[in-house]
Known about the structure:
The structure holds two protein chains of two kinds.
Chain A: E1 2-10, H1 15-25, E2 30-37, E3 43-51, H2 54-66, E4 70-76, E5 81-92, H3 98-107, E6 111-115, E7 119-126, H4 128-138, E8 143-148, E9 152-155
Chain B: H1 3-13, E1 18-21, H2 28-34, E2 40-43, H3 47-61, E3 65-69, H4 73-87, E4 92-98, H5 114-117, E5 124-127, H6 134-146, E6 152-158, H7 189-201, E7 205-209, H8 211-215, H9 219-229, E8 233-235, E9 251-254, H10 261-269, E10 272-276, H11 282-285, E11 296-301, E12 315-318, H12 321-332, H13 343-355, E13 363-364, E14 367-368, H14 370-380, E15 386-389, H15 393-401, E16 410-411, H16 422-432, E17 438-443, H17 444-447, H18 454-459, E18 465-470, H19 475-484, H20 500-507, E19 510-514, H21 520-529, E20 534-539
Amino acid sequence: MKHTLSVLVENKPGVLTRIAGLFARRGFNIDSLAVGETENPGISRMTITVDGQDQPLEQVTKQLHKLINVIKITDLDPATSLDRELVMVKVKADETSRSEIMQIVEIFRAKIIDVSKSALIIEVTGTREKLAAIMSLLRPFGIQELVRTGRIAMDRGRGLT
Amino acid sequence: MNSARVILESLKREGVDVVFGYPGGSVIPLYDALYDFDLDHILTRHEQGAAHAADGYARASGKVGVCIATSGPGATNLTTGIANAYLDSVPMVAITGQVRTNLIGTDAFQEADVTGITLPIVKHSYLVKRVEDLPGVIHEAFYIAKTGRPGPVVVDIPVDLTTMDFDYDPEGVQKIDLPGYKPTVKGHPKQIKAAAQAIAEAQRPVIFAGGGVISANAADELREFALYAKIPVTTSLTGIGCFPEDNEELSLGMLGMHGTRYANYAITNCDLIFGIGVRFDDRVTGKISTFAPGAKIIHVDVDPAEISKNVAVDVPIVGDAKRVLVDLLAQLKKHDLSPERHLPWMRQVADWKRAHPMLVAQEEEGEIMPEYVVRMISEITKGEAIICTEVGQNQMWAAQYSTIRHPRHFITSGGLGTMGFGFPAAIGAKVARPDKTVIDIAGDGSIQMNIQELGTAMNYRIPVKVCILNNQYLGMVRQWQDLFWNKRYSATCIACQPDFVKLAEAYGAQGFRATKGNEVEEVLRVALASDEPALIDFRIKRESNVWPMVPAGGSLGDMMGEGDR
């Protein structure tokens, strides 16, 4: 089962290595990882998506807690949290296909951020499902390159993670 | 103040009075400052020896052990000792030199990524980048090493940071700000109540105590608790000494693979395990599905990650062993504990003890029996000596046949199982406790892994006594080959070995040998009476095995004895 962990860490050298190393040692594969400063520059937030059973994941979470630089870990419940990912995708596009692609972009409320004679770069933000849906529509045109930020997530309402 | 001196001043502030180390290019400035500084330095003959000595010092004293090594190979030689301290939760600070800041990452001479290499085997580590961080980092390192679940902390210091001048304000650095590190000390009152209830209701209870009781300095509280509740106590290997083994009624000795039959039978048949400062490691539990099948489990540990890691726990309590035992005893006293509540169980346990005593023979087929040597050591020293061990058969015989009465008196590499640990650890223990007789019970294989530390023992006249149970085999592996690999003794015969008596003498130490059972006591008395480091070569029965035994992955209730091969 997929889990999204929101991890608050001290912004210190080596923190990412310590965390990534711990997952690897305990046999977990990190699906996606996004790191950045929070409202406090001394503290960063990592959003980590992993695939794993609840029990071994609980053990990893406890081990993560033992890292001195880890401040807080929340296993986000998909029912009460929001998640987003940003993708930039370069799609083959000539004058015959360009308008059809632009329609798809509009429907998904994505953005075209670069145009050239033979390709478009599209920026799209959304949940994993939305991104999968637009990708499946763009694929027939020929995806030349794709880059994604990794998932970030936040609890709904007033709750703080 | 010179920054190398600041490092030493910072150590001093943490209460350090001795460090174990080995110099090298990247720590020359640090050693220069040490030259006329009021801090004892023990020069070992190998960095691994320094790490193990710091470990032995820490275990014997309860203080943080400190070792120093240079960059590159110096630091990598510490790693086995750091891993050893990590697995057994020993408070240690390892200071390593690093190449100059501007050379880091260039594959410079004697450069190794020490914080990277040690990442999985430290509680925490630092690569210091700014000289003004030094005092704060050292203060934090000690705080982390000794609080919560203790462990090793590495402080890697580039050499250029040790030759600078800076304003050292000792008062300014004593504040700890670690928002992610707040060890839980006090157990949750609700859980304490639940535990007391379970203990009061149990008809067949057992206490399973481990190294955590010793590191929390909670042996007195454990004894008081066990005596009050009248519950038998078994210990893990690293827990030996946390409960007096000469308590005939309540001490069951060690459990697990080479534990006593009565401890393993008691665990298998009990209805409640009160586990404290233990981690239910595989050498203890055997086959998990048959481990204590009818038992409710209370588990107290300062490290929440240990709870329900290996066995499912019914009453988890996160907290410091000492604090929890005090609170739990107070809670238990509110219950009406009748001594009759578990009388049949106490009778049963006594019957098991009577039926399966740990007997020793002096000789078999004209050769010395190892168990006899261990028993004699224990008797002659009246259980007051600090016993260190190497790893393998010697370690198991030492654990089974010594009668340890005090905490911090049995020092062994439990988790990592490091051959070569015992001798340098014994040196560290003797430095910590000069008032104590310190004995390393060794095998002929293990002792050769750090035999060079005879030089250290002689250099500082540290009168450690090494008792080699010499069977000219790597005995524990040979035992497995004997029992499970059709006696194919692949690479375990080490009959080609030095004359240990002459070797000791070559270093200027005393050397002794015993080849007959009736020589054992006399040789021990002479060796222990002297103030010199001594090495005794006990020629034991070559193919003696450690009994009883639960084969790896077997059930504790199903032990093999001598007759079951």
